[in-house]
Amino acid sequence: MARKKYALLLLAIMLAVLVVNFSTTNASSTLTCSSDDNGVVKKAPGDAFTVKITFKNTGKTEGNWSINIAFEGDSWSQTGTAINLTLKPGNSKTLTWNGNVPANATVNSIARLVVYYNDSFKALDWWILVVPSAELSITASTVE
Hints:
The protein is an alpha+beta fold. It has a domain of about 100 residues: Immunoglobulins (Immunoglobulin-like), CATH 2.60.40.10.
């Protein structure tokens, strides 16, 4: 009797997986994005930065997306300019955004890179850490 219950349970799970698989297979064009690396980039207030992200249409039809980026943090944020991207199935393209850390960004604050496309978003593993722009150097010393 227990074997029949497990067999029915296994059949139900397999059927659920099959239904989910069919529903994602028939989805229209989908977009994936990847950055070459990840981590924390140190920038002083007012410093320039460049963001490059490669996007790929992993769907079965041509797709068109409005894509934008933003660095978002508790004390500052910076938004890029939206770019329209059209990709055929399986094709990839790298998009580039240039920006500046706000001049009034708080030192030691951090903001995370978020990609927005159509009605979706994805937070990537990139952060800008705001560092002091003043640097102290010892130029001379004496001991008497």
